[in-house]
Amino acid sequence: MSTYIQIVGRGQYLSRRAVLGAGLFAGTSLLLKACAGSSTSQSSPVGKQLVITTFAGSWEQFYRSELIPAFTANDQGTVSVIPMVSLEQVAKLKASPQSPPFDVVLLDEGPFDAAPKDLFQPVSSSLLSNYEQVLPALKSKQGWGPTTGVQAVGIAYNPKTVSSPPTSWNDLLDPHYRGRVSMQGMKTTQGTSVMVQFARMNGGGEANIESAFTLLREQLKPNLAGIAANSGALATLFQQGEIDLAPHDLNNVISLKEKGLDIDWVVPQEGGIALRPAQQIVANAANPELAAAFLNAALSQEVQTAMAAAPYYFLPANQTVKLSGILAEKLGSTTEEALTKLILLDWSLINPNRTKWIERFDKEVQA
Amino acid sequence: MKASQLFSPKEWQLALPLAFFLHLFYVAPLAILLASSFQQAPGVAGVSLAQYGNFFGDAVNRDVLVDTFILGVQVTLACLIFGYPVAYIYARAVGIWKTILTFLILLPLLTSAVVRTFGWVVILGKQGLVNSALLGLGVLQEPVKLLFTHHGVAIAMTQIQLPLMILPIVASISQIDSRLLAASASLGGGAWRTFWKVVFPLTLPGVISGCLLVFALTVSSFVTPSIIGGGQIMYMPTLIYQQAVVLLNGPFAAAISAILLVMVLTVVIGLSVLSQRSRAYIR
């Protein structure tokens, strides 16, 4: 008796299931069809739309609140922003060079220099009415996009615990700060720059970093509380009083300071390091003219003035913009003057060895 | 009856949409990944074990593998020890307490791992909650270093994975027939004896699936180990990211991924065998 009921029950159960399953299957295939159909119709309005990348944090904030509103105000097109680190942007472009996922990218000079150049297209200066105003030192000799804004790397410190402000990169090695120093790893532009700077100060340079590794092993590592994964992590470490000293960007430090953190920043006597991220137009971009218009908007006096002020504090590439406030106090009244206190590294010498160095650095610092 | 014949009751067909999806977006990429791990170098044709040789030839990489495994085991055990009592209490709770406990257990799942991880940075720091409390109570003279250590990562991961251990155990505890407990008590079994002889064996399937989830997700997690551990402590996922995205060494990254996959599969198969034995025991 009970078996009989079970069989009947099971039969009904299955038929309901079967109908449901068939329905689901039909629904899914309709959905797939719909997806395939919509992708073809999407290609027509692409002309007025730019897909661009930027770095997360201050850069993204600057793009969203200043650059993009300024660009779209002229009714030139719409922009969608994707925040991503340089190396990842290059990896994505490499993965699909024929139909690139972005139109304009923002890349640190190191990763840009290392990337295959057929991923990008040079920008004609005739399309950039603001090109004349760009500081010559920040223009590319090969005709690539000029530097968008300069970030100055110096030493950030906690004025509560560090009584006399540091003056030299060597202060990071002072045994007095054992376990109270942090830095970003060599996979970041900042970390590599600092290591190369240490090499330069000890008889090496962009092509020969051996002396910096010796320094790392003997003097820097005992001082390191840890290697910060990114600049956000570095900020948290300062905030928690976990560290006293770290190489850091001026712009990040100012914005932390304005939020009330005990943090200040100095240019070391050997010179700070200038990081020069630049926008590039991607090869095979759907609308190169629109992309060039976007680059031009980024270089305009109006946008560059906003970029040099609160809360971003990047050094402007446009030489008609004067520095003010903290930026002027730390680095001088113009970007040109600021660059005399900063070192420009030659990434074409660094890049051939960089991957080896990153691997070696990560192994050397293992706890 | 006719309708059920029309849509013939072959249950496997129900899984077709998902199977199609998984083959396209999971099985095929996985096959490509495994194939590329046998490349000698990016873009070089031919089959070679060079990448695997490189991995096991380097002491640092072997340490990373061992550390990852140890982290997985530690976090799984900690989750089990902390999670089981909570699951037990939850299964016995009534009324409003059940709602409150549900909320508390699920709470960690409601915020993103990134946010929780930064929270742990604040807690584990030298002037963080843990150190301030221990120093204030006079337990410690010097603050202990937890941030950027293996222990720090294990502590944070335990909190983050805990719900995944509790939920399967709750499911299996609530399936236990309460008459079994009454029977055990009436036959003279004390609370502990009842627990170890009746309740615990009956919840083994839940415990094992909790362990599986926690272990697999711990050894493959990326955000928490990279922020709490900092650059100085590496685990397999950080190594994969470094090789694939930073150094653009695809074949080596694929080989590391394959090794991680083998480790997870070994544990999964081991635990599944245990699970079947425990089911046999229940019947």
UniProtKB/TrEMBL annotation, chain A:
MF annotations from Gene Ontology: thiamine binding; thiamine pyrophosphate binding
Tree of life domain: Bacteria
GO cellular component, one term: outer membrane-bounded periplasmic space
Keywords in alphabetical order: Signal
Keyword Signal: yes
One GO biological process term: thiamine transport
Family matches, as PANTHER family: ABC TRANSPORTER SUBSTRATE-BINDING PROTEIN, THIAMINE-BINDING PERIPLASMIC PROTEIN-RELATED
The protein's name in its UniProt record: Extracellular solute-binding protein
Organism the protein comes from: Pegethrix bostrychoides GSE-TBD4-15B
From TrEMBL, chain B:
Signal sequence segment: none
SUPFAM superfamilies: MetI-like
Record domain ABC transmembrane type-1: where: 65-273
Transmembrane spans: 12-35, 69-91, 103-123, 153-173, 194-217, 252-274
Keyword terms of this UniProt record: Cell membrane, Membrane, Transmembrane, Transmembrane helix, Transport
Coiled coil: none
Keyword Membrane: yes
A Pfam family assignment: BPD_transp_1
Entry's Gene Ontology BP terms: transmembrane transport
Membrane topology: Multi-pass membrane protein
Subcellular location(s) of the protein: Cell membrane
Entry-linked InterPro entries: MetI-like, MetI-like_sf
One cellular component term from this protein's GO annotations in UniProt: plasma membrane
PANTHER family per UniProt: ABC TRANSPORTER PERMEASE PROTEIN, INNER MEMBRANE ABC TRANSPORTER PERMEASE PROTEIN YDCU-RELATED-RELATED
Family classification: Belongs to the binding-protein-dependent transport system permease family. CysTW subfamily.
Protein name per Swiss-Prot or TrEMBL: ABC transporter permease
